[in-house]
Specification:
This protein has 371 residues and is of the alpha+beta class. Helices cover 21% and strands 58% of the residues. The protein has helices at residues 2-47, 92-96, 125-133, 136-140, 225-237; strands spanning 52-61, 65-75, 78-90, 100-116, 142-144, 146-158, 166-179, 184-192, 199-208, 213-222, 240-256, 259-275, 278-293, 296-297, 303-315, 318-331, 335-345, 348-357, 364-370. It has a 19-stranded mixed sheet that branches. The radius of gyration is 29 Å and the shape is elongated. The relative contact order is 0.06.
Length: 371
């Protein structure tokens, strides 16, 4: 009996030592020297030279999985993505078959750089082109089920305009991406200005690879409308300029091949429209529907409805006040057609119609009745 117990003890000890040695071999050699290079190589192969992934160090914990530090993703345009810590939960049976299937990818301490150069090229466009060109077996080599980003910083810069640029920095970024069936991907995103009261953005997005479609719902608040208008819209509406103390935006969009649909609502607080030395001030609620097919705006399906309050136009030391002001308009690629503008001024009602042309001299034409 004692001899049997001794043999059992030696057997258990041997197995324990074997397991320990195997774990050490896996954690100290196989993971960092064999597995990590294969993962990096698989990912880089999928980029087809459009981007390069680099990893500072790799460790393995039997209960927590694979742990990466100092991860960088770059294209020829520069660094797009970096992360201090990446925690990977692999599908081990799939990995044994040399299939890189990631159950969950958790990323912390992330910095994401989004930029556009003078030629209008976005720094991430090579990745999209590579993804669209991929297919078949090669596309299935790497599969993500869930990706979670936390504590992220997003740096945005647009330098396409020759004499101007816009730069923004967002913090507290959170992203969760779900791979539903390798064709449908769902994402939830939120981020904000360092002072969240100045600007905050959240979105729920869906991408269907089989249909080539994008859709989603976006909610945002900003006090930086003046910056965005100056950079993106001044050339379109000059000599008109718009600013506001605060703007809330909520809307949906869908993109299917060459068709774009947008349905949005804007709540404007303390807005101002300036033309030369004349500036009209108001609060507003604006509802917009926009449909674009093959680059052309469809007039009959692109409308703007606006309700204004606290409307005033300073004229010298006097102030012209308008009440119950509302507007219905349609939009094309060449003009805004004001179908109906009505309100009261000086106790008398008025009704106007007209148009604003985007081509120079970009005048606004109005006609109607007062009183």
């Amino acid at each position: 009996m004692a001899k049997t117990a001794k043999h059992l003890f030696l057997f258990v000890t041997a197995v324990t030592l074997l397991i320990a040695a195997s774990y050490i071999a896996i954690a100290d050699y196989f993971i960092p020297s064999v597995m990590a290079p294969w993962i990096v190589g698989s990912i880089n192969d999928s980029f087809k030279g459009a981007a390069v992934l680099k990893i500072g160090s790799v460790t393995f914990n039997i209960s927590k999985g694979i742990y990466l530090k100092d991860v960088d993703l770059s294209t020829k345009a520069g660094k797009i993505f970096s992360a201090k810590d990446v925690d990977i939960d692999l599908d081990l049976p799939a990995f044994i078959k040399k299939e890189l299937k990631i159950k969950e990818l958790r990323v912390a301490g992330t910095e994401l750089n989004i930029s556009r150069d003078r030629e209008g090229r976005w720094n991430f466009s090579p990745l999209i082109q590579t993804s669209e060109a991929g297919g078949g077996e090669e596309r299935q080599r790497m599969v993500f089920r869930t990706v979670v980003f936390s504590d992220s910083i997003i740096r945005f810069s647009d330098r396409m305009q020759k004499n101007n640029s816009i730069e923004r920095r967002f913090v507290n970024g959170k992203v969760r991406v779900e791979n539903v069936d390798n064709n449908v991907f769902l994402a939830r995103i939120s981020t904000s200005d360092p002072d969240a009261s100045n600007e905050a953005i959240s979105a729920d997005l869906k991408y269907d690879a089989s249909k080539g479609s994008y859709s989603g719902r976006i909610k945002a608040n900003t006090r930086y409308l003046d910056r965005y208008w100056t950079y993106y819209l001044d050339d379109v509406f000059f000599p008109w300029h718009f600013k506001a103390k605060d703007v809330d935006v909520e809307g949906t969009f869908s993109v299917i091949k060459d068709s774009v649909d947008i349905d949005a609502r804007y709540t404007v607080k303390k807005g101002a429209v300036r033309y030369g030395t004349i500036e009209a001030r108001a609060d507003a609620v604006i509802a917009q529907k926009l449909k674009i097919v093959k680059g052309d705006i469809l007039k009959d399906k692109s409308t703007i409805k606006a309700e204004f309050s606290n409307v005033s136009v300073p004229i010298g030391e006097d102030k012209l006040e308008l009440k119950e002001l509302s507007c219905i308009a349609s939009v094309t690629g060449k003009e805004i057609v004001f179908k109906k503008i009505h309100g009261t001024m000086g106790g008398k009602g008025f009704g106007l119609s007209g148009r604003y042309t985007f081509n120079y001299p970009r005048n606004i034409y109005l006609q109607g009745k007062y009183g």
